[in-house]
Task: structure prediction
Amino acid sequence: MSTVPGYVRAAGAVGSSAVCRGKRRREPGASERGARLAAETASPAEELAQLREAMASRPVIDQARGMVMAMVPCPAEAAWEVLVETSQHTNTKLRDIASRLVATTEGRRLPPEVEKAMAAAFRRHRPDRGW
Result:
């Protein structure tokens, strides 16, 4: 009789080959999967730092979204999509796109690749295509 509940076996969490007389055998590739998972999982300190960075960049992202909404009258969701697409098409962090756009209020220019990507995103999200 197996010591592993049926629902666990059915979910694939532990295969019948993994249990043998109360001892757990190492499944093939388990150590590699564990190493990958450990590498992908941020430590609590790293996660806290990322959350703080996200909270710090949020106001400038909201300002940039408002600027997009004012430049091309559109709803907040469409403005967000313009910023995200610009970020993706230039391979630039969204917070950097936002801060560059906000800096244009102080006389700075957008980098040409950002300006081009943003213009293309505006065209894709025109009112005649529906917000």
